[in-house]
Amino acid sequence: MSGYSVHKILEMKPLNDEVFVMCVEAESNGAPGQFYMLREPDTTDPMMGRPISISDVDGNKIYFLIQIMGEGTKLLSKKRAGDEILLMGPLGNGFTLVEGKTAMLAGTAGIAPFLYLSKQLKQKPDLYVGYRSGSYYTEEFKDTTENIYIATEDGSVGHKGYALDILDIDKYDTIYVCGPMPMVKATLKKFPDANTQVSLEAYMGCGFGACMSCLCDTIKGRKGICKVGPVFNGKELIFNE
Ligand code: FES
User: Fold this and answer.
1) Does the N-terminal peptide bond of residue 32 adopt cis geometry, omega within 30 degrees of 0?
2) Is 88 helix (H, G, I), strand (E, B) or coil?
3) 34, 38, 93, 213, best to mutate for ligand 1 pocket (most atoms within 8 Å of CB)
4) CB 232 within 8 A of CB 202
């Protein structure tokens, strides 16, 4: 583990009140679905790093789509272009690139890892994304996806309801899933036999398997989401409720 290194923030782009894209000057050999720990340099608390998946890589720029969830991400949201940020990564195991027809199913900021994934899949995937109200970050997928399906809980954009409602599973060989845990569980419950690759969100302290704060149950035992995941075969995940 190399630890954190200092990098310059090149751009901060708010998408709405609670979601923003941070562009950091850094080379990355990360794969889609892998993540970095991001930390505000002025914090002395070593556990204030936050796991953020790679949204895109372009030359020496890494893009992170970040949702404000608590203190750590709030600190990140206050950064400005020109400021410094601490990065550690790439970490974890990302998505496996498969052949055939694929769909990416995202719940709100779960769309984060899919732009980079869509650029690397040989066959353009379809994107299904659900929001509470309104939408963001879908324009970016215009050239890298075949179809984009949007759902909102309040019906303000696209289908009124959930993205999962409009996913026709029979059209796809593999479904990539990323979003809040209730959405992940609902997906796996609805399609238990589908080939799914699921990126799990979790609170993470260290990001590399040392603090045991990010465990999940699988048919192979308890695993650290940061180290074995964050991407798991959906058929291997066990939820105890
Ligand atoms: Fe520390 Fe996963 S975040 S073990």
Assistant:
1) no
2) strand
3) 213
4) no
